[in-house]
C-alpha cells in the first residue's frame, strides 16, 4: 500500500494537528528517529538523582517521628510538605510527558517510547518514587528506542526503578558472604523471571525454572536505594559460575560485567527476536497480526543483531503498513492526547495547568476509561487486546470526555465542519461528516467527532 500521511498519524503517531505537518514519507519518519530528541529539551524531566536529597530527608523524618525524637510536631509538618512535593512532581512530570505528544512532529518516537515503557513496565511502590516512573522512562527508555535492543534491555533492567519494582534490592545470593550474616535474607527471582518471560525470550521461550533460578543468582548483587541510586554489591552476589540457557556466566567472584554479558546474550537470542517482533506487530496492527509481517520483523531483528531502527524500517515498509481498516483501539491516554492535539492545545498550556486541573482534564477521565496513570496491574503492562478497551463503562467515559471537553477554558473550539477534517482527514466517514455539519452547537459537533468510531481507532 502507498504511504498515507493520515494513517501515519493515527497508526504510528499521536494524532492529527491543526498546527503541525503530517510526516511526508516513511523515510521522513525513520530519519526523524536519527535526530536529537527535541521534545526532551522542550519538556524536560529531571534525572532520578534529583530526588536524592528529598528522599534522604524523608527517611530521616520518618525515623525521627517513629522514635519520637526532637520536635515531632514540626517534623510531621515538614514531612507532610515533603510528601506534597513528591506528589506535585509526579503530576508535573506527567504533564511534560504528555505535552510532548501535543507538540511533536515526530509522533512515531512518542509512540515507540510508550510501547517500550509498557514492555519494560515499572510501577512506583513508594511515595518517594511516585515521580520516578517518568524519570525511568526518560533515562532508561527514550535514549535507546532507536538504538540496539541490547542497550535498551540493559538500561531498563539495571535502572533503580526496575530493581525496586521487582524487589531485586532485597535479593541475596544464598552462598554469598552477605548471606552468612543475614540468615533471613534470601534469593528473589522476580527480576530474573520477568527478564526472561516478558522482556526478552517471551513466555514460550526456550528456558525453564532452573534458568530462572540461575539468572536470579547471577542478578543477586544488583541493588541500591532511592538516595544513592543503582549499586552493585559483590558481597551479595552468588559465587559462580551460573548456567543460563546452557551457557556458563561468571566465576567465583561476582561482577557486574557478568550481568552485562548475560543480558547481551538474551538480547540477541532468536526467541527474543520472535517475541519482540510479535509484540510490535500486535501493538501497531492487530491482535492477530499478519504472519508475514511478524516474520519480516523477526528476520530483520536477527539480521541486524537487534538494531531497532532497522526493525522499525521493516515495520513501516511492509505492504500492510498503511492498509485499512484500522483494527486497534486507542488506549485512554492515547485517545485523550490525540483529542487535545486535534483541538490545537499547546504543550505549554498543558504543563501550566495546576495538578488538580491536569487530573480533571486528563488522568481522572483516563482512569474512568480504564487506564490509571502509570499503574498497570502487573509487570506485563497494559493489555493489548482490543476488546479490553471496548467496554460499556469505558465507552461511556470516552463519550463523556468527548462531549464535555468543549467546556475546557484552555481551548478555543473551531467550526465542527473544519474540525472533522483536522481530526480525521480522509478517515472521516459520511456519517461523521454529516453529524459534524448538523450538530446544534459547536461543542456538540466537536464532541461527536471525538466520540466517532474512527477517532477511537489507530
In a few lines, what is going on in this structure?
The protein is built from 25 helices and 4 strands. The chain is mainly α and 458 residues long. A hairpin with a 3-residue loop joins strand 1 (222-225) and strand 2.
Rounded mean pLDDT is 96
Strand content: under 5%
Structural class call reads mainly alpha
Number of strands: 4
What integer value in Å does the Rg equal? 24 Å
The major pleated sheet works out as:
2 strands, antiparallel
Order of helices and strands: HHHHHHHHHHHHEEEEHHHHHHHHHHHHH
Question: Which residues form runs of ≥5 with pLDDT under 50?
Answer: none
Count of alpha/pi helices: 25
Query: What best-fitting shape do the alpha-carbon axes yield?
Result: globular
Q: What is the helix fraction of residues, given as a range?
A: 55-70%
N→C terminal distance? 17 Å
Lateral arrangement of strands in the main beta sheet: 1-2
